[in-house]
Specification:
Elements: E1 3-7, H1 20-34, E2 38-43, H2 54-75, E3 82-88, H3 97-104, E4 108-113, H4 125-137, E5 140-143, H5 146-155, E6 161-164, E7 184-187, H6 194-206, E8 216-219, H7 225-232, E9 239-243, H8 247-256, E10 259-261, H9 271-278, E11 283-284, H10 306-319, H11 321-338, H12 341-356
Parallel strand pairs: 1-2, 1-3, 3-4, 4-5, 5-6, 7-8, 7-10, 8-9, 10-11
Length: 357
């Protein structure tokens, strides 16, 4: 059996806090298993420096050097045939994989690597340079979105293969279809920054709705809980903050919702879009890079349209159950065709076995 060393410097798939990053990491492991490849999670070292602190980067570099030394020693007695790193970028570079792969003469793969050369100067310069070096070292890089592909192709060294791996759900079938007649649903971590910008846009949109009896359930938790609760307070009991939901409870929420409403400000792509569409929910989101890669074809509102365009889209769907059902089925069919486990497993495993053959 083919065996790979797997590492996720941003967040290991065993991390206790739910996130899209963790979900995608788990999905990758499921895809490898589905293709008959065994993956060892070889390190849980998280290299993320969210604030651009030189001292933080120096500390993580020292930890990574020690971790690489440990893994080189371990790898001499392991039967790894490939090293795979998931999600390497300037705030959380792979400081371990290139060193270990080179020492053990392993092909080095990356999944969802991003190049950000504008960060080569500034507070993240050390980490940005490390992320660029890791990307340069990769034999194969799988990109998830068209936006990531642009810079990967632009700066790829001659030896490197770039492969498209569409984001996917870790399942080969679809969940039961939603009833389509429940409340709207928003799913996202409650944190400041880009996530909070989506919640602010949601609140602005809700004030413009003409549909009289709308309701919204928000699934998520985090440090911006009080801030989100505050901006939703004017809507009273029409907005319910349900907190963090486990997989079963979230699946139930999808199954009862009428649509998913998540604008997607600066989302990489968003697993919640795939989960919602798999359940047959039409999605109200903005046409943004990354997000658009996982949405069923439709004329989605642009950011320039602001909350007014989002409100028009919601009013249309809430007021026309036939259109809502049509869009929901189209979304479900789209996920079944493009974003389930089987196709992803074949893409990953063909590249791995073709490299080591």
């Amino acid at each position: 059996m083919t065996k790979v060393a797997f590492y996720a410097p941003m967040k290991p798939p065993t991390h206790p806090v739910p996130s899209g990053d963790r979900a995608m990491g788990r999905a990758i492991l499921a895809a490898l298993r589905d293709g008959g490849i065994e993956a060892d999670l070889v390190s849980k070292l998280q290299t993320r420096d969210k604030d651009g602190h030189v001292d933080t980067q120096a500390r993580l570099l020292a930890l990574a050097e020690a971790e690489a030394t440990r893994l080189i020693a371990q790898g001499r007695y392991a039967d790894w045939q490939v090293w795979i790193t998931y999600h390497c970028y300037y705030k959380a570079p792979d400081l371990v994989g290139p060193t270990v792969a080179a020492a053990l003469n392993l092909p080095y793969f990356q999944i969802e690597a991003t190049r950000a050369r504008k960060r080569l100067n500034g507070p993240w310069s050390t980490f940005a340079q490390a992320a660029e070096a890791a990307s340069d070292a990769a034999d194969v890089i799988f990109h998830l979105t068209a936006r990531d592909a642009e810079s990967l192709y632009a700066y790829a060294p001659a030896h490197q293969r770039i492969v498209h791996l569409p984001p996917f759900l870790p399942r080969n079938d679809l969940p039961p279809a939603s009833s389509g007649d429940g409340p709207m649903l928003s799913v996202g971590m409650l944190r400041h920054g880009d996530k909070f910008a989506s919640y602010e846009l949601i609140a602005d949109t809700l004030t413009l709705l003409k549909t009289p009896d709308w309701r919204l359930v928000i699934a998520g938790d985090g440090p911006a809980l009080n801030a989100v609760a505050s901006i939703m307070q004017p809507f009273g009991d029409r907005v319910e903050l349900r907190g963090s939901l486990d997989d079963a409870a979230l699946g139930e929420a999808y199954g009862q919702a009428s649509l998913l409403f998540w604008p997607g400000v600066n989302e990489a792509f968003g697993m919640t879009y795939l989960e919602a569409q798999a359940a047959g929910l039409p999605v109200v989101a903005q046409d943004r890079p990354g997000v658009i890669d996982v949405l069923a074809p439709h004329q989605h509102p642009t950011p320039a349209g602001g909350p007014e365009a989002l409100a028009q889209e919601i009013d249309l769907l809430l007021g026309d159950c036939a259109e809502r059902a049509r869009r929901g089925q189209a979304a479900r069919d789209y996920v079944a065709t493009h974003h389930l486990l089987g196709a992803a497993s074949k893409t990953l495993c063909d590249a791995i076995t073709g490299t080591i053959a």
